[in-house]
Write a structure and sequence with these properties.
Elements lengths: L11 H34 L2 H31 L4 H27 L1 H6 L13 H24 L8 H23 L7 H33 L8 H12 L1
Length: 245
């Protein structure tokens, strides 16, 4: 599939609606990518102000999802979409849902920064699981950049390793939770509140990776027309490698 397919209709208005929809998805993705980048900085620096800004951006992300729904409804109501156009509409709706949920999980992730900013005798980096969380968010950010690039270029080569990346976040999460469990056996109750928030942030980061894989699956549907949502991770990884070669 080439992006020019969305500009090849007789109706210029129709072409513009499809182009607007495509660009709206990219714009929403850019906002979520900004959220995730800021989350990384907020947690590193225990920056409560930046964490609050992320929450404000999340409101814009929610509006973007509604705008994408509106654009999809406009095309469906006023035009007779071809098969490739329908795939764009379906994929846009799916991707918007996952981007919105990623935004929500980013907000959950940076609650750690807000909590840690209120105490000065417990640096965030001393909490068990901190290095793992930073690594997971960094992988999430790389994954998100890959899927957005894949969507923008309509090129699946960018997402060939997306399943391996998700598997890596799961491995890091498991190791982090084991580290945290061991620390709970040796720490006093004064740390428990902050350690629990670390667990919530790690879980949120894991869910972000899962939503990014969902976006990759939607892009496969857009480009190839294959519905791969119910493939297990091994089959999906093999499929992505085969079609990106």
């Amino acid at each position: 599939m080439e992006r020019t397919e969305f500009k090849s209709h007789i109706s210029e208005k129709y072409n513009q609606n499809l182009e607007d929809l495509f660009n709206q998805v990219l714009e929403m993705g850019g906002l979520v990518e900004e959220q995730l980048q800021n989350a990384l900085e907020a947690i590193k620096c225990e920056n409560k102000v930046l964490a609050k800004e992320i929450k404000q951006v999340d409101k814009l992300v929610n509006k973007e999802e509604m705008e994408i729904d509106r654009l999809c409804a406009r095309v469906l109501a006023r035009q007779q979409p071809a098969a490739s156009d329908l795939r764009l509409i379906v994929s846009a709706i799916r991707i918007a849902v996952d981007l919105e949920r990623i935004g929500d999980e980013v907000v959950n992730t940076v609650k750690l920064a807000v909590k840690m900013s209120k105490v000065h005798d417990i640096p965030c980096e001393t909490l068990p699981g901190f290095k793992s969380l930073i690594e997971m968010i960094s992988i999430d950010l790389s994954m998100l950049n890959s899927v957005l690039t894949s969507f923008a270029q309509l090129d699946l080569a960018e997402v060939a390793d997306i399943v391996d990346d998700e598997d890596r976040t799961i491995e890091i999460k498991d190791a982090a939770l084991l580290e945290i469990q061991n620390s709970l056996n040796s720490n006093d109750d004064g740390m428990a509140e902050y350690i629990m928030q670390m667990i919530y942030s790690i879980r949120a980061s894991e869910r972000i990776a899962a939503h990014i894989v969902n976006i990759a699956e939607s892009i496969v549907y857009l480009i190839k027309g294959n519905d791969v949502r119910h493939m297990n991770s091994k089959k999906l990884a093999g499929f992505l490698n085969s079609i990106s070669e």
